[in-house]
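Lab notebook, entry 232. We have the chain sequence and a SMILES string for adenosine-5'-triphosphate, and the next step in the workflow is to get a structural model of the bound complex before anyone spends time on docking refinements. Request logged below.

Task: model protein plus adenosine-5'-triphosphate, output structure tokens.
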Amino acid sequence: MIEAQALTKAYGGHKAVDNLNLKIAPGELYCLLGANGAGKTTTINCFLGFLPVTSGRVLIDGLDVAEKPLEVKRRLAYLPEVVMLYPTLSGLENLDYFSRLAGFRHRTAQLLEYLERAGLPAADAQRRLGDYSKGMRQKVGIAIALAKEAKCLLLDEPTSGLDPGASNDFSQLLRELTAQGMAILMATHDIFRAKDVATHIGIMRAGRLREQLENRGDFEAKELEALYLQTV
Ligand SMILES: Nc1ncnc2c1ncn2[C@@H]1O[C@H](COP(=O)(O)OP(=O)(O)OP(=O)(O)O)[C@@H](O)[C@H]1O
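Result returned:
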């Protein structure tokens, strides 16, 4: 469960996030849409504990991020727009290193299985990461989330710069993670991708959540785009 209770984050007098209430249950993928500066990244940074909240609470699996930072870290994985990994190590070595940092010691066969589940074949897993495409690096990021056995996943613009094929693969992967019971929060500008993968969609403007809808397949992407343009 990923939850914000009356989350407010202010910089001086400016509220970057203003009284945000959000609840993402296991098996739900919530896409947060909004124009530049709407407060999406600030929200994610509060969940990560990178930013102290001004008021309200952020909870991961019922644990307050400010009170239980270590327990929260164990349950949470984060995929930024550009995944920071070691270019001179292979995908496999990066996964081994980061899963050890998270306290796990997986066998090579198990690590390869995580990479495979994330869509990276074994032959690529042995190659130097510096030679990977952005889509391949994102897959290593997802494999790290799998190896950590994270229950909650935060994604900030993960598909920006991916070609349509890679973006489509990534969406499929997110659907699988959701089906396996992860709770996922994804900040994105990609309305059509959001329509494609989200179970829930929120539209933010000036730090506030202006619209929230359940994506049950009963509206078209064009309608979402129109709502977005009206809202932001
Ligand atoms: N360190 C900071 N100091 C002061 N203001 C900040 C700081 N970080 C963010 N802001 C402000 O907070 C607001 C929200 O920014 P945020 O980066 O969360 O938006 P966003 O929705 O993620 O935008 P984008 O789509 O461009 O990534 C903006 O008005 C921004 O200028």
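Notes for the group: The chain has a mean pLDDT of 93. Worth checking against the assay data. The radius of gyration is 17 Å.
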